[in-house]
Design brief:
The chain has about 450 residues and is an alpha/beta fold. It contains 15 helices and 13 strands. The relative contact order is 0.13.
Length: about 450
């Protein structure tokens, strides 16, 4: 049986006996593991470290030729999420002048949720779509846990011994530049890439968000990467202390979005993201109870899919918010849905950057957000294009939402400033920073 090391989510937030909303402890790090994980996790980690050390010498054949091609490794190029959106965005930019191939750990869909950029090739280490023929070896190895993906990375449950074998095969044919997009892949690239293959790790989550065994290997092995890119000034400081001058801060670029600019004449607030504990939608729903009492004509729409859907539905029903909060599911037209709103809310317990804030601002939406680690405070200018409230303070979030929804002129003023802020994250501006980094590493 595969060892699963998923994040244990917090229970739903309920008002206290006085009917007030509590401030909620929202640590930057995930909570402690369950007993089974604490017992089996060290075993899996020891096996991972030993096998990686054994495999590394087998891949020491220098990579020659193929200069200029960029390989980008993703957990699921065919799925949805902020990392996928921004990675496809980057791939499309780089494909203007380079050959680009995305290597996806897995493929479960016939059609990608997010349109693949023109000129970008995509391959998958494991294709589990129905009707796809798989060899006996592939079927067997797919049932066994990965030994190369770190057991404390959240991609681990989706990896297998088969994806390990497929990754090693792919690595042998890579020439040029390999960009990896999560800690486990960064570690694999740093430790296994052959000489001559330029390795760039990306951190899409903040420095303190990794569980301790993974954080230990990050500190131990990230120095093997040629460079590491981070999204925020705080992570540049923290990782810079670890790696010195090989850290570059390059924020996520704004993806192309459908629709136009919001008119800000509706009574709709929107939130979007995976339905997980990290995104804090339970906190947002708890805060919206007070908003619904003060602003009964306003509606909250939450876009996204994920494992917490049933619990959030139950929370909405228990609070009697069925007519005020709508779970909208995942959408391929988030831009158009934002156009129909007048306010965006981010309730995350922690972030790596908060690309969805920039996306909302590009639609002219003011933003109310928890001041969570990390990202929102570097994007939102309080009193100018949005508001920041203390992290986890449900009551403060409710008060800010009530204030904002009651002041139409303030919404419009903030919305104009939000449009201007979003321009700082346009693709050409961010892409030029990637061009400069690649040129430096390739010695051009």
């Amino acid at each position: 049986m595969r060892l699963r090391l998923d994040l244990r989510e917090r229970s739903l937030i309920q008002p206290n006996a006085l009917g007030t909303l509590p401030r909620v402890d929202t640590p930057a790090q995930p909570p402690r593991e369950r007993l089974r994980r604490r017992l089996l996790g060290p075993v899996a980690t020891a096996a991972h470290r030993a096998v990686t050390a054994l495999v590394a010498p087998l891949l020491r054949r220098p990579a020659a030729g193929g200069e200029g091609k960029v390989w980008i490794m993703l957990e699921h190029a065919y799925g949805m999420g902020g990392t996928i959106r921004t990675t496809l965005n980057l791939a499309g930019y780089l494909a203007r002048s380079r050959e680009v191939e995305i290597v996806s750990l897995r493929r479960t869909r016939e059609r990608p949720f997010i349109e693949l950029p023109e000129g970008v090739c995509v391959s998958a280490l494991a294709d589990t779509r129905g009707g796809v023929r798989r060899s006996v070896a592939q079927r067997l190895l797919s049932r066994l846990p990965s030994l190369l993906v770190h057991p404390y990375d959240y991609a681990y449950p989706r990896a297998s011994l088969w994806t390990d074998v497929a990754f090693v095969r792919a690595l042998r044919r890579m020439r040029g530049v390999l960009i990896t997009t999560r800690p486990a892949f960064n570690l694999m690239a740093g430790r296994l890439a052959p000489p001559g293959l330029v390795t760039i790790g990306q951190e899409h989550m903040n420095f303190h968000a990794h569980r301790p065994p993974l954080a230990a290997d990050v500190r131990r092995h990230y120095g093997r990467l040629r460079a590491l890119t981070v999204l925020t000034e705080e992570d540049e400081r923290d990782y810079g202390a670890l790696l010195g001058g090989r850290v570059a801060r390059i924020p996520n670029a704004l993806p192309r979005m459908d629709g136009g600019v919001a008119a800000l004449d509706s009574r709709v607030a929107v939130a979007a993201g995976r339905l997980t504990g990290q995104k804090g939608f339970d906190l947002l729903i708890a805060a919206w109870e007070a908003v619904a009492r003060e602003r009964p004509d306003w509606e909250l729409r939450i876009f996204g899919g994920g494992p917490k859907r049933a619990e959030l539905d139950a929370q909405i029903a228990a609070a009697g918010l069925g007519g005020s909060v709508r779970m909208m599911g995942a959408t391929e037209a988030l831009g158009a849905e934002m156009d129909a709103a007048s306010l965006f809310v981010l309730s995350s317990r922690f972030e790596g950057f908060g690309l969805v804030i920039v996306e909302a601002m590009s639609k002219g939406l003011p933003v109310v957000s928890f001041d969570c680690p990390r990202g929102p405070s570097e994007i939102i200018d309080p009193g100018v294009n949005g508001e920041l409230v203390p992290n986890g303070d449900v009551g403060a979030l409710a008060r800010s939402l009530i204030d904002m929804t009651g002041d139409r002129e303030r919404l419009r003023r903030y919305g104009r400033a939000a449009l201007a802020k979003a321009q700082e994250y346009e693709l050409d501006a961010i892409g030029a920073r990637w061009d400069a980094l690649l040129a430096e590493l390739e010695g051009r």
